[in-house]
Amino acid sequence: MLKWSVVGVVYVLALILLWVYSGQEGMQNRGFVVAGYGLTWGALLWYAFRLESRGRTTARAVESFEVAGAGD
Amino acid sequence: MGPRTTVEKTLGILALLSMLVGSYVGLVVVPADAAQGDVQRLMYVHVPAAWLAFMAFFIVFVMSVLYLIQRDARWDRVAASSAEIGVVFTVVTLLLGMMWGKPTWGVFWTWDPRLTTTAILLAIYVGYGALRSFADDEEKRARWSAIVGVIGFANVPIVYMSVTWWRTLHQPPSSPRSVAPDILWTLMLNLAAFTLVYAYLMVRRIRLAKLDGELEKRMAYNA
Amino acid sequence: MSVLRRAWAIVWKDLLIEARTKQSFNAMVFFAALVLFIFSFALGPDTELLQRVAGGLLWVGIAFTGILSLSRTYQNEETSGGLEGLRAYPGDPRAIYVGKLLGNIVLLLMVEAILIPAAGILFQANLWPHALGLAIVSILGTIGFSLVGTFYAALTVNLRAREVMLPLLLFPALVPVLLGAVNATTLILEGDLMGEAVVWLRVLGAFDIIFFVICIWIFPIALEE
User: Is B93 exposed, middle or buried, given 0-12, 13-18 or 19+ CB atoms closer than 10 A?
Assistant: First the structure.
């Protein structure tokens, strides 16, 4: 539930940003630069942390099979 | 996935540090471009991201060929990892390109050969990922993705050439300006940083792939 | 060459089944006509606009229609397992690919024979002076489309959600074909004063040759147990 709320918030934010940037001419360029670098860092960090979290989940799943197997 | 090995830790720290330095130089140290202004700073992240995306997919191609010849699951794991990371870099590339394009060209998108090819690359490797998620049998999944990995990449030069022709027939290509040394070494710095990030992510992702394989095996035994 | 003979046997069988049941052909023609009609309707009565986009819309229609029939390429052989029926064929599996490929090409060309004149009417483009050029584009484009389509259809036969996977895999791979076909068609319809269409025909030709080689080469691997 929390995950989907975050997704929803990000989506709405993205739409707002798109609306703001689309409408304006002669926009101050720095906004785009900051957004761009932020996006790059955000995406890479997000992916790296997701990898770790997936790793933990999978490791736990593997362990649970080991425990179950040992009981046979 | 277990604690990081020394290699992984070193790679990770180097990647992080170099990215920090690269971004700092790109944002603060290097002077803004005379013609394009601050927006040009986006090139220091956009170009390396694009380059790494392409490298990642090239590696998918090589690993796919290797798998089809040797049928070793290791190549399949590397291919799948590289494809996933490649997709991340591709999305970043496209979004950065759009952010650069809006202030520069006035539009978010244009049918420029490289943009178009990049978008198609995204479609190809998203398809690759979808194919893997729908194939349950380990061997079939590896074999089919390898086939898609080979065909998909073989198409890239053809697509690029086609789109280049298409654009040049209607529009003169933008002339490349000679690159100032400041810009060049900042670009190289960031390129090195992104490469280190790719390497680190690959190492961790391949470990995850191995773990996934373990899980599948155990689930099969217990089924 | 026995590969060709076996391929021909497959083509002949499939076309006979198709001629008797007309299962694909009717659906394809109807769907294609519907697509063209909706496009023409949506774009309105501006003749000049219609003529300009005729090439692109024609190929969109052909592509969608082609996908419709591609997923049924191997349907005649499908048992509950999917590819088992195909693997039961004796001899070189490449014959299957060539046979199915030819069947798809013939079927699609037959649909186009109806579709192109229909497009001419709906988009108010005079096609007769350009008939030869259009025929060449049509053939080269259809071959390209069918080459990749027949191949990916085999790959996805056994896959879950294959109705989604086939277009997802196919369309990025078809970009050069679509680019080439649309541009060549549009140029030809405009009279092609500068002979640019030849460039696109070469793109189509190169694609056809390259992917014929690749697909024939890899097909046995796709079909493996």
Answer: buried
pLDDT of residue B167 exceeding 70, the answer is no
Chain center to CA of C94: 19
Cβ separation C210–B154 shorter than 8 A: yes
Which of B126, B144, B155 minimises the CB distance to C155?
Answer: B144
The reported pLDDT for the residue numbered C96 is 86
| Chains in touch with B (≥3 Cβ pairs < 8 A) | A, C
Residue B145's pLDDT is 93
Closest-approach residue (CA) in chain B for A65: B218
Cβ contact B148–C183 (<8 Å): no
pLDDT score of B16 = 92
On average, the pLDDT of chain B sits at 86
* Cα atoms in the Cβ-side hemisphere of radius 13 Å centred on C10: 28
Pull the structure tokens for residue A21. Answer: 């940037």
**Within 13 Å of residue B106, how many CA atoms lie on the same side as its CB?**
2
Chain A residues whose CB is inside 8 A of the B99 CB are 32, 35-36, 39
Chains B and A are touching, with contact defined as 3 or more CB–CB pairs separated by less than 8 Å: yes
ipTM of the complex: 0.86
| Angle of the B43-70 helix axis to the B73-105 helix axis, nearest 10 | 160
- Phi, then psi, of B71 in degrees rounded to 5: 55, 35
Cβ of B144 and C160 within 8 Å? no
Alpha-helical runs (H) found in chain C: 2-21, 23-43, 47-70, 84-87, 94-122, 131-156, 162-189, 197-223
> In chain C, how many domains are there?
1
Distance CA C31, CA B20 (A): 55
Q: Which of B209, B222, B220, B200 lies closest to B4, judged by CA?
A: B200
B117 CA to chain A: closest CA distance, Å? 20
Q: pLDDT by residue (tens digit) across B168-206?
A: 655 444 545 566 778 888 999 999 999 999 999 999 999
**Under an 8 A CB cutoff, do B214 and A35 touch?**
no
What's the pLDDT at B172? 47
Predicted TM-score (pTM) of this structure = 0.83
Contact A33 B42 (CB under 8 A): yes
pLDDT band at residue B64, thresholds of 50, 70 and 90? very high
Q: Between the CA of residue C177 and those of B104, B124, C147, C215, what are the distances in Å?
A: 31, 15, 11, 15
User: B88 to chain A, minimum CA–CA distance in Å?
Assistant: 8
Model confidence at B4: pLDDT above 70:
yes
Helix (H) or strand (E) holding A13: helix A2-23
Q: Which domain holds residue C191?
A: 2-223
Q: What's the confidence (pLDDT) of residue B92?
A: 94
